[in-house]
Amino acid sequence: MTAGNRFLFNMVTLRNSHYLLLLFCLVFSLRATAGEVMISYGGGPQQYDSDQHNRGWGVDYSFYKIVRSVRSELSFGVGYTRLVNDADTHDSMYSISLYPQLTLYPGNPVKSNPFFFVRALGPSYISDNQFGSREQNNHFSFQSQVGIGIRPYMTASQEIRIMLSWKHFSNANLFTDNDGFDLPVTLSLGFDL
Length: 193
What we know:
It is a single chain. This protein is about 10% helix and about 55% strand. The chain contains two helices and ten strands; from the N terminus they run H-H-E-E-E-E-E-E-E-E-E-E. It has an eight-stranded antiparallel beta barrel with strand order 1-2-3-4-5-8-9-10. The longest helix has 12 residues, at about 15-30.
């Protein structure tokens, strides 16, 4: 490991969960400009060379949103994901993530307001380096998520979001072990606050 990688590793690896709790509380204490809460549940077979089956649930809070146009918005948030699998050992873990999300809408608004979204390179803390047969080198990871959704209006000022996506955690090959953990199908429901 080079000196630069070692510095990065030392900066992002938190050895004490109290620091994570403090970070989580600080993010939630920010003034909410987006104010959206999403709950999710998903699962499916782990991709590639594994026969394990993963399941998970999560809560995400988008605390800031920049509306660039009627066709795109960029939001930032924090999320908690709990993962379980059907392996005999290392069958559960959790993740705390910060994420940017790009959301794209069609050019002409339609009744159900369909959209495409992507979350990429959201720095994450994972509670365990091994999840079933899958291994990561340390507790630092990235969250990636890509999906589609609709945004029907409940009232003039209240929207819901219904999303179907794929969620992935890996360290982007920054470190030697990078098997990645997947939730191939995730259903999310979001509410404006």
